[in-house]
Structure formats: structure tokens, C-alpha cells
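Example for tutorial group B:
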């Protein structure tokens, strides 16, 4: 049986990509995040289903769009 890969999803709030060293910021260093990014895939583009945080998090975890998973606002 083939070995299953480990999968780690890191989801931060209020975190812009250009505030991370692994995405080219010359000043800011986040050793743990930079190490994770250097050892695995780091994505340059990410498109969201909604401009609101919580519906996007639910969509990522369930694979369903906010219009079908019932989360349309934060806190619901």
C-alpha cells in the first residue's frame, strides 16, 4: 500500500503574504513559517469564494461554496 502524505493547512487571520520572508519581504522573518515554506509547497496565488473570512474557511474545509454550506457571514 502506498504511504499517504502528511498534510498541514496553516490558516492565519489578518496575514498578508507580503508580510512574510518566504514571499519576499526583506525585513520580516518568521522562522517557523519560512521553514515550512522551504520544505513544502508554497502557493503564489489563492482565489477565494467570498470576501469574508469565515465563509472562506468553511469552504476550504468542506469543499463547498458559501452559498451551499450555509455560512454567509462571520460568526454564523
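The residue assignment follows.
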Amino acid at each position: 500500500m502506498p504511504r499517504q502524505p502528511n498534510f498541514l493547512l496553516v490558516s492565519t487571520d489578518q496575514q498578508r503574504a507580503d508580510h512574510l520572508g518566504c514571499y519576499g519581504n526583506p525585513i520580516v522573518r518568521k522562522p517557523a513559517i519560512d521553514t515550512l515554506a522551504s520544505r513544502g509547497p508554497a502557493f503564489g496565488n489563492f482565489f477565494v469564494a467570498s470576501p469574508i473570512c469565515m465563509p472562506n474557511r468553511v469552504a476550504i474545509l468542506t469543499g463547498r461554496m458559501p452559498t451551499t454550506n450555509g455560512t454567509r457571514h462571520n460568526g454564523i
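The two ends are 41 Å apart (CA to CA). Compare this with the pattern of hydrophobic and polar residues in the output above.
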